[in-house]
Each structure stands twice: as C-alpha cells, then as structure tokens.
Amino acid sequence: MSLEITVDFSEQIAEFQNKIEGLRNLIECINRQEKALSLLKKQPEDTKLVLGIPPFLQEYGSSFAESMFRSSITINAQTLMPILEQNIEDNTVLVHKLAKELGIEE
User: Fold this and answer.
1) What is the rounded distance in angstroms from the CA atom of residue 106 to the CA atom of residue 100?
2) Exposure string (b/e) for 44-74, b if CB count within 10 Å is 16 or more?
3) 4 part of a folded domain
4) Radius of gyration of the chain (CA)
5) What is the rounded (10 degree) CA torsion for 25, 26, 30, 36?
6) What is the tally of structural domains in the chain?
7) For the stretch 10-41, what's the b/e string if a residue is b when 16 or more beta carbons lie within 10 angstroms of its beta carbon?
8) pTM for this prediction
9) Is residue 68 part of a domain?
10) Which of 4, 59, 80, 98 sits 20 to 30 Å CA-CA off 87?
C-alpha cells in the first residue's frame, strides 16, 4: 500500500523571504547612514542641516503640493552624529539577530 504525503512549505518560504528582504534593507540602511556620518564628520562643527519632513508625516488633511516643502527641521550636525551612530549600532545588532535567525551567522 502506497501513501502519498503532501507538505506545504509556502508559508515558511514566504516568512524566510521576508526576513531576507528585511536583512537586505537593514544592511542598505546602515551603509547609507555610515556614508552620511562620514560626510558629517568632515563638516565644520557649526554646520546646520535643514531636513525636509516627508508629506506623509505632516499634518493630516493638507494637500500634497502644499505640504511638500512646508515642514522642515534644522539640526546641528554635531547633534545628529551621535543619533546616527546609535542608529547604526542598533541596526547592526538587528542585522546580527536576523542573520542568526536565518542561520547565516559569521
């Protein structure tokens, strides 16, 4: 007597693919942040940056065209550097955790 067994791994595969995509995104984010940090470190200490706030983070109800350039934040580069450094460190921890979950530790 033969017995046929069917196993559906599609859910596990989708979860694995999502984790891989998350890992890629985190690594790209870290690389961009490291480049930004490197550039900031080369700037004079009194450098101020004006960062635009994306329209989707601005108050609800304003039209896209109006809100596109309406809001911004001015921040001293010296204030931003430790924030970037901490974010890089936190994201690196997440990368290692995700890599471990995926079984691709160094």
Assistant:
1) 9
2) eeeeeeeeeeebeebeeeeeeeebeeeeeee
3) no
4) 21
5) 50
6) 1
7) eeeeeeeeeeeeebeebeeebeebeeebeeee
8) 0.71
9) yes
10) 59
Tell me if 98 sits within 8 A of 22, measured CB to CB.
yes
Q: Which two tokens mark 10? A: 């599609």
In angstroms, what CA-CA distances link 105 with 24, 70, 95?
Answer: 15, 45, 10
Q: Which two tokens stand for residue 13?
A: 């595969």
For residue 61, give the CATH number of its domain.
1.10.287
- Please report whether residue 90 resides in a domain: yes
Distance CA 80, CA 49 (A): 9
Which pair of tokens denotes residue 33? 């942040």
In a domain, residue 77? The reply is yes
- For residue 98, what are the domain limits? 11-102
